[in-house]
Amino acid sequence: MPLNPQLDTLSDYPFEALRSLLSPVTPRTNEAPIAMSVGEPQHQPPALLTETLAAHAHEWNKYPPMAGTPELRQAIADWLTRRYRLSPGALDPDRHITTLAGTKEGLYLFASIVVPRDKAGQPPVVLCPNPYYLVYNGAATMAGGEPVFLDATRDNAFLPNLDDIPKAVLERTALFYLCSPANPQGTIAGLDYLKKAIRLAREYDFVLAADECYAELYGTIPPPGALEACQALGPGANGLFDNVVVFHSLSKRSSAAGLRSGFVAGDPRYVGQFKRLRDFGGCQAPLPVQAAATALWRDEAHVVENRALYHRKFDLAEAALGGRYGFYRPDGGFFLWLDVGDGEAAALRLWREAAIRVLPGGYTARVGQSGINPGRQYIRLAVVHDAATLEDAFARIRRVL
Ligand SMILES: Cc1ncc(COP(=O)(O)O)c(C=O)c1O
C-alpha cells in the first residue's frame, strides 16, 4: 500500500499513548474519575457567542471567505494593537492577518509553505521546544523538515537556550516554533528573549512562528508577544514584522475550543503565501462562526472574568500542592508541571489508586540533545475543573503520590 514514508517518523499522539497505558488498568476506587490529562476549558464561553451565532443564523447557506471577513480581521487587528501596544496602523488586516479554523490546523499547515526542499544545499531544520505541542513535530516531519528539539528544563528556566543552538543548525533552520506561554510548563518568554529570537530569525533567514494561544491566561504579567518584540526591535530589510508570525486562538481566551477559531498574523510575505495555500487546502470557518469570533475579539470583560477563575484554581493548587513535587505556580497557561520522579509510573498509580488521569510528561517530549527525555520525570495536569473537583483531585494526588 503506497504511504508517505514520513508517517513512520511520527510518534504516537500522546492521548493514544495514554490510552494504551491506562486502558488495561481498572481503578481500585469507587471515586468518580477525574480527567486532568486534556487541556480542555471547562468554563462556558460568554453568552455573546451563542447570541451572535443566532443573530447570524441566516448565513449558513453562504460560502465564507477563507481569509476571514473584513470585520473579523479588523477586530483582530484592533485587539492585537491594543493588547501589544502596537503603533496604530502598523497592522493592515488585509496584508498581515488571515484567520484559521483553530490554530492547530494553521500551525500544522504553515510548515508546508516555509520548509523548502533544502536550505543552503542541506536538509532543512525545524526548531521545536522540548517538551512541545505535538503538532510542531508532526508539521515539521510531514513538510520534509528535520525537527531539532531544544530542551526546556528546570536548568534553563523552562525556555530553550538560544545561545546553545549551533551555528550549523541555525544555517539550516527554516522554521522555529516557539510556544509562550509554554504548554506544558507555563513559561513566558520575555521581551528580550523574543527580540533575540527575532534577531536570529532575521540573521539566518528563518521564520519564527510564535504560538501565543495561551497569551490571555496569565498570573500577574501579561505575556509580551512576538509582534510587540518586532516593534521594540525595529523593522528588518522588508518591514516591521520581518520573519515573524504569531498564532492566536479563542479556544482558551474565550473558553471556545469548540468554535474552532484562531488567526495567524505577521510578516505579509508568509501570510500572503499562507492565504494562497489555504485557498487549496485550508478550512473555512462558517460566517456565523466568524461573526461570533468578531464579537469575542472585541470583548475584554469575559476574558478578565475567565482569568480570575483560573487564578482561583491556581490558589487551590498552591494551597494543596505547594512545597511538593517541585510545585511552582506557572506564569501562564492552565497546566501544572509536577516533578514526580517517573511520570509514567505516577500516571499509572494515580489512575489505579485514585481514578485521576494525567499525562506523563515524557509523552509530550522526545529524547533531546542531552540524551534523555526532558519530560520523563513530570506529569502534566490541566487545572480546568470547578473548585470542588479540583480540591478533591488534589487531595487524592496527595494521598497517592
Ligand atoms: C500550545 C498549543 N498550541 C495550539 C493549540 C491549538 O489550539 P486551537 O486549535 O484550539 O486553537 C493548543 C491546544 O491545546 C496548544 O496547547
Mean pLDDT over the full residue set = 96
Strand content: 5-15%
Bound molecules: pyridoxal-5'-phosphate
Query: Could you give the order of strands across the largest sheet?
Result: 2-8-7-6-5-3-4
Order of helices and strands: HEHHHEHEHEHEHEHEHEHHHEHEEEH
**Low confidence ranges:** none
Shape: globular
Please identify the structural class as seen in this structure: alpha/beta
Give the % helix. 40-55%
Strands, total number: 12
Number of helices: 15
> Largest sheet, if any?
7 strands, mixed
Question: How is this structure best described in words?
Answer:
The longest helix is centred in the last third of the chain and has 21 residues, at 301-321. The chain has helices at 14-22, 47-55, 70-83, 93-96, 103-114, 134-142, 167-172, 191-204, 226-233, 250-253, 268-281, 287-298, 301-321, 343-354, 387-400, and strands at residues 34-35, 97-100, 125-130, 146-151, 173-179, 207-211, 244-249, 262-266, 335-339, 356-357, 359-360, 378-382. The protein is an alpha/beta fold. The model has no long low-confidence stretch (mean pLDDT 96). The radius of gyration is 21 Å and the shape is globular. The protein binds pyridoxal-5'-phosphate. Pyridoxal-5'-phosphate binds next to helix 5.
